[in-house]
Design brief:
By secondary structure, this protein is α/β, with parallel strands linked by helices. The chain has one domain: NAD(P)-binding Rossmann-like Domain (Rossmann fold, 3-Layer(aba) Sandwich). A 7-stranded parallel β-sheet has the order 3-2-1-4-5-6-7, with helices on both faces. Bound molecules: NADP nicotinamide-adenine-dinucleotide phosphate.
Length: about 240
């Protein structure tokens, strides 16, 4: 069995569902000692009952600072918490724009700001961006802009942390069937059509599985990827290769 994360203390946000949940379970199988963070404690405990679970809104600075004061040293961050709201620049309200930036960019920024000093030499951070933070589509303007900012945050952190031998990368998934996509389909007037479209936009002609994103994250959090930092890696069935 792969134990590449043996003994590494890793914080996972968004661990109560979707990609964060599947990733937390994979990291645990590979030997990680988990700290799970999210807004619903019961969901975190369902992900991994033995893990340390912390109720935390990552966009609340006072809460993040209080958590940092008691958290202790970390060897990894997997920042998967995020929120999708659809709409164009014209149709998105300022309140929705701010909520999407808060969930997808302010939260990871605050975690990096307050937890950065706790990262041990050799630690690795993985931020979950999106392939629509790399390429524009018409209906997710605020989310795309926020994820593009998150990709840059990963690069900036890679530079800032390199002298301490700490790495930071972003991964940019294409559509993965999780509660986030279910909510998007539920709000659609044509769910079957939208599901077919989401599945068909990449050369492999299917949506991703959360574990396929988690496996890339596990590699980036382990010493196997010790020379990889400051990158944004698409995991999207080849969508990024297509014009
Ligand atoms: N699924 C896709 O197709 C896809 C594609 C590209 C990128 N992504 C990204 O992948 C990540 C995981 O998404 P998912 O698909 O697994 O969706 P999901 O199941 O909806 O998970 C999102 C998680 O983010 C947490 N979250 C949101 N706002 C938060 C906040 N302010 N504080 C703390 N936690 C917060 C939610 O936790 P609560 O329990 O507290 O609500 C939830 O567990 C997200 O960053 C998403 O943008 C997803």
């Amino acid at each position: 069995m792969d134990r590449a994360l043996e003994g590494r203390r890793i914080l996972v946000t968004g661990a109560g569902s979707g990609i964060g949940r599947v990733a937390a379970r994979l990291f645990q199988e590979r030997g990680a000692d988990l700290v799970l963070a999210g807004r619903r404690l019961d969901a975190l405990r369902e992900t991994a009952p033995q893990a340390q679970c912390v109720k935390l809104d990552h966009a609340d600075e006072a809460a993040v600072a209080a958590f940092a004061a008691t958290c202790g040293p970390l060897d990894g961050l997997f920042l998967a918490a995020g929120e999708l709201r659809t709409g164009s620049v014209e149709s998105t309200s300022t309140a929705d724009f701010e909520a999407v930036l808060t969930a997808n960019l302010r939260g990871p920024w605050l975690l990096a700001h307050h937890l950065g000093p706790l990262l041990r030499e050799g630690a690795s951070a993985v931020l979950v961006g999106s392939n629509i933070g790399l390429r524009a589509i018409p209906d997710s303007a605020a989310y795309s802009v926020a994820k593009a900012g998150l990709h840059m945050l990963a690069k900036v952190l890679a530079l800032e942390w390199a002298p301490r031998r700490i790495r930071c990368n972003a991964i940019a998934p294409g559509p993965v069937h999780t509660p986030m996509v279910d909510a998007r389909l539920a709000a659609s007037g044509h769910p079957a059509l939208d599901l077919a479209r989401l599945s068909g936009v990449n050369p492999l002609k299917r949506m991703g599985a959360a574990v396929e994103v988690a496996a890339l994250a596990a590699h980036l959090l382990s010493g196997e990827s010790a020379w990889t930092t400051g990158t944004v890696i698409p995991v999207d069935g080849g969508a990024d290769a297509v014009y």
